Amino acid sequence: MSADVVQSLLAKTKDFSIEETFAFLADEYKGKVVFSTSFGQEDQVITALIEKSKAEITIFTLDTGRLFQETYDVFHRTQKKYKLPIKVYFPEAKAVEELLEKKGPNSFYESVENRKECCFIRKVVPLKKALAGNQVWITGLRAEQSENRSDLHLFEYDANFGILKFNPLLKWSLEEVQKYIDDNNVPQNSLHKKGFVSIGCAPCTRAIAPGEDIRAGRWSWESSHKECGLHQK
């Protein structure tokens, strides 16, 4: 996909609201637009906006098998509130079985390589399956989430997965996200009120202290860029 496509989309949607952009993309790429949710605050805002737009966008989530119960709770409440189907993708059972048999259930604590292996099996492979055959991937990425994401663009081509990526909340602040949730009674993970900002798998997520970086609670024993392979930034 050329840069011309990205520039064309930016030009065509520059005066659109997020809901209007969703509707435009759903019409332009019929049946090929998907949104990946992990039920975090940003993703919950996007789900609410998708429901409001009435656009035909497939919503999916990755169930790694190691999620918090609180994540399942908000998953359930989200389905009840918005009446939207949410497809679920699991890791391949054999790959998980072999990982646990060879390295045990907590190998991700032992090295960055082991952690990335676990992420690859539980998240990256299922994501590839979810994105296969689609043309637009909507994400909840925000520029201020981490230094790695500060140079993201509203539309961009993700060469890693071979798909156009749309980041509708790119320029939103966390305060704006929370305000939308509060003003629109959007379901949110109860862990957010306990200092958890970025929520992933239970063994790999902790609450952060005031003033800590937003991503500090993910893989807190590491000093790497702290990405799992879903997003290169």
Features:
globular, 39% helix, 6-stranded mixed sheet, 233 residues, 10% strand, Rossmann fold, alpha/beta
In order across it, which strands form the biggest sheet?
Answer: 3-2-1-4-6-5
- Percent strand equals 5-15%
- Report the uncertain regions: none
* Overall mean confidence score, pLDDT: 92
The CATH H-level superfamily is HUPs
The DSSP helix count reads: 7
Given the C-alpha coordinates, what overall shape results? globular
State the CATH class.
Alpha Beta
The radius of gyration computed from the alpha-carbon positions, rounded to a whole number of angstroms, is 17 Å
| Count of β-strands | 6
Share of helix among residues?
25-40%
Order of helices and strands: HHEHEHEHHEEEH
**CATH topological fold name:** Rossmann fold
Largest sheet: 6 strands, mixed
**CATH architectural arrangement:** 3-Layer(aba) Sandwich
The termini sit apart by: 19 Å
Domains, number: 1
Derived structural class: alpha/beta
